[in-house]
Amino acid sequence: MKVSDILRVKGQSGGTLLTIDPMEPLVLAVNIMAEKDMGSLLVMEHGSLLGLLTFREVIQALSRNQGALGDLTVRSAMDPKPLTCTPDTLIDEVRRMMLGTHSRYMPVVSDGELQGVISFYDVAKSVVDSQNFENQMLKAYIKDWPSGSPETDGK
Prior knowledge:
Strand order of the largest sheet: 1-2-3
Largest sheet: 3 strands, mixed
Number of helices: 7
Number of strands: 5
Strand content: 15-25%
């Protein structure tokens, strides 16, 4: 399974890419994330991915600024070098990368163009769905096992 498979499923469920300009106030980003119930915002400048803002970066900014957002900008809090993948990246590789860096969100980029963003939830769900499908196929195979064969007679 590849990242493109997750993006295809997310596209069918109306997944929306939320972006923000790096010079916007951080408080605006927090309000958007809260209103839309999103854990991340893609920071875009001139049509290119510049960074990623997640609730982790917001909390770190709050900690550095004595609990106040004040007039901090998105640029001051964002991760300027987020981990990215391509649509052709295998899900097992994405899972390894996300676990290794404790990343919860990963932008998907192809030829310099943003394709989407996947979350650790998306990756975990795809793995579980794949395992459930395999399990169903194995059960169907066993159920249809021919009778009278050595495997079913215990010989």
